[in-house]
Design a protein that fits this description.
Distance between the termini: 23 Å
CATH class: Alpha Beta
CATH topology: Alpha-Beta Plaits
CATH architecture: 2-Layer Sandwich
Number of strands: 6
Strand order of the largest sheet: 2-5-1-6
Largest sheet: 4 strands, antiparallel
Order of helices and strands: EHHEEEEHE
Number of helices: 3
Helix content: 25-40%
Shape: flat
């Protein structure tokens, strides 16, 4: 089964890290990604730019509107994700608990819904 591990935290906290702390956290994420790869669980993942770089697109009655900034103002922002393939939810939760982001915020674990094949 595939699961999306979404990493939520306060991006202002990350911006305030010293270079040493930033390097330490970066190394922890690199080691985590390597562990996922070695276990054969890694499908994909990325770090996201700050919410200030977001563009929100909405279409209503055929008219497109485009706005700068995040969709919603929240305490914690989506900062990155891992797409993993593991046997079950319990295994996905165990991997989420190992993610360095879990120490700085929260990891939302969501199963990927299968897309039906078209005939």
């Amino acid at each position: 089964m595939e699961f999306l591990l979404q990493i939520y935290s306060d991006e202002k906290r990350w911006a305030g890290f010293s270079e040493e702390e930033s390097d330490r956290v970066h190394s922890a994420f690199m080691a985590y990604g390597q562990a996922l790869r070695e276990a054969g669980a890694f499908v994909g993942g990325n770090r996201l730019e700050a919410t200030s770089t977001a563009t929100v697109v909405h279409v209503s009655d055929g008219k497109t509107s485009v706005h700068d900034g995040p969709y919603a103002e929240t305490k914690e922002q989506l900062g990155g994700y891992y797409l993993i393939e593991v046997a079950d939810l319990d295994t996905a939760i165990a991997w989420a608990a190992r993610c360095p982001g879990a120490s700085y915020g929260k990891i939302e674990v969501r199963p990927i819904a299968p897309v039906p094949a078209r005939v």
